[in-house]
Specification:
- By secondary structure, this protein is α/β, with parallel strands linked by helices.
- The protein has helices at 6-9, 23-31, 51-62, 75-89, 104-116, 133-139, 158-168, 190-200, 257-271, 276-288, 293-313, 339-350, 376-400; strands at 38-39, 99-102, 122-127, 143-148, 172-178, 206-210, 233-238, 251-254, 317-318, 326-330, 352-353, 355-356, 367-371.
- It folds into 2 domains: 21-43 and 293-400, Aspartate Aminotransferase, domain 1 (Alpha-Beta Complex); 51-288, Aspartate Aminotransferase, domain 2 (3-Layer(aba) Sandwich).
- Helix 8 links the parallel strand 5 (172-178) and strand 6.
- It is globular, with a radius of gyration of 22 Å.
- The N and C termini lie far apart (56 Å).
- Its cofactor is pyridoxal 5'-phosphate.
- InterPro entries: Aminotransferase_I/II_large (IPR004839), AspAT/PAT-like (IPR050596), NHTrfase_class1_PyrdxlP-BS (IPR004838), PyrdxlP-dep_Trfase (IPR015424), PyrdxlP-dep_Trfase_major (IPR015421), PyrdxlP-dep_Trfase_small (IPR015422).
Amino acid sequence: MPTTRESLLTKLNTRLNLVGPSDILAFNAEIAKLPDMVNLTLGEPDFNTPEHVKQAAIASIANDESHYAASNGTLSLREAAANFLATKYNLDYDANTELIVTIGATEAIYTALASVLNAGDKVIIPTPIFPLYIPITLVNGGTPVFVNTTANGFVLSPEMLEAAIAEHGDAIKAVVLNFPSNPTGVTYSAADLQALAAVLEKHDIFVISDEIYSELTYEAKHVSMAQYLPAQTILINGVSKSHAMTGYRIGIMAAPAAITQQLGKIHQFTITTAVNAAMAAAEEAFKHGMDDAQPMKIEYQKRRDYVYDQLLQLGFEVAKPAGAFYLFAKIPAGLNQISMEFARDLATKNHLAIIPGGSFGPGGEGYIRISYAASMTQLTAAMQRLTAYVTENQKVVIAND
């Protein structure tokens, strides 16, 4: 086994010293060693990929589609994705010049930030938020400007946005939006987006709008930021959550042609192109599975309502999710407010795994994230274990008082 030449370690990209391994992945690895665990940490659907989508992937392999595709993805997939965005969200993108097929939304996030950031640029990141945007910003020379949205129901208001822009001026290069949100499940209404667009159109600021959970909205239809600010928006979407295809790693990125041309450089230099069989499956999903998420969404809503009610009864404060499959719950007073310690103790004593809220940036400490992408059997067991934990620890607190 080769050993490291110690002097080489000082030659690495110094920006890597600004980031660490994912808290979420590290915590998952830690609790994976514990037996009899009910795991509500996973951010992926617990459903199977639709059969017609799987068959398209199998057919691609059988047909020897084994050579390099176009870097931006097969034209037929881009056409299907453009039609999906037009039909679902009233968006008008040219499949030839304004769409890129990415390796999941993750690559799209990296490509977008790497393409727009220069050293010293700043990125407005409303928190709590999916933490991936933070290290990618740092590694690409940017500085996160965190805007804690907990006091506003986890929604970035135009006043908050204006204040951040006024404070940091021309250094602001981009703002990140993620809705429906991971970790809160909160989303933005048409009025919310119009108000933000009215602020942003006054400035030369990119909007990186991650809408990967768009098909998993409940009471209201999803509205895209690109509908109100298309000239400045880099839109991210895909099939991972809508079609239970996380392992296929297919995302889509859409933007005006001149921006897409530049995005394509980072994309091309990073991954060359996506996998043919996965692209064939995604094309089938967009073409003939436009509403495949509906049965999943109905089941998620039932699960949401059950877990939400249970958490309220236990004294947790929870914003009722309007989409995705997460609940972000404030730990009740009298229990350990350090979210990592709370989560570790819960996993160790009661064998229930959730994600500490502190992993999601400023405003997240004192909260926990629960994924209800699990069966009702698992969720019922989880709530029983959480009830037992809260009851027992409240007894300890009262006794100590």
